[in-house]
Amino acid sequence: MSEVLEIERRNQAWIFTLNRPQKMNALAPELVQALTEGIEAAHQENIPLMIFKGSGKNFCAGFDFSDLDTASEGDLLQRIIHIEILLDLLATSPAMTVALCHGRNFGAGVDIIASCKKRIATANTTFRFPGIKFGLILGTRRFQNIVGTQNALDILSSTRTFEAGEALNIGLIQQVREPEDWQSLIEQAENNNAILSDVTRRNLYKVLYPDTESDQNLAALVRSAAAPGLKERIRAYLKPN
Questions:
Q1: Whole-prediction pTM value?
Q2: What is the pLDDT of residues 175-198, one digit of tens each?
Q3: Which fold has domain 5-178?
Q4: Which InterPro entries does this entry report, sorted A to Z (predicted)?
């Protein structure tokens, strides 16, 4: 697997570590591809538990804008679509998925967290969805389904940063735990996962996490991203005030 993503393969759990700490684990194309291929490989191996965390100072800073000047609008659109496909693959996974997050997290990085079934953060974790500033509708329904329409509207329309305490109150995360506790949490997740048979767990997840919105999510994303002037909107967002 690519060095931008480390995977610890256990018998009953695979632990994915985003490994671009120098870029705050931003979602460069090679990281998105590595995550997609890694999740698909776990599905092929019938791995019942997948854990996601990030190296360095944070979990994930979202979309990687470092090559904005050289990328075409078509390139950007394709990359955004690949991220949505990744999110859908994760959100509809037949495995239990757990996000262990810390630090400052943005946009599609928060969408990865929201696509996991269990979400745990350290007390210093912050979250922000800036994509609406350049007209991008990515992962919105998943976030809405977790936190409710009013909370989603407030956070997404204001693009404000919110902290772990608020995330816990609205249900984006379920626990606040520090990294020294994560190994015990992983072991607990493995034990809890063994309670149900693979067939029962898969059937339960099909009911609780249906894939009926997948096409709608992708269509909404494409409509928002395909509007002319995407690069200029992103540049305006990135421009220092």
A1: 0.91
A2: 999 999 999 999 999 999 989 898
A3: 2-enoyl-CoA Hydratase; Chain A, domain 1 (3.90.226)
A4: ClpP/crotonase-like_dom_sf, Enoyl-CoA_hydra/iso, Enoyl-CoA_Hydratase/Isomerase
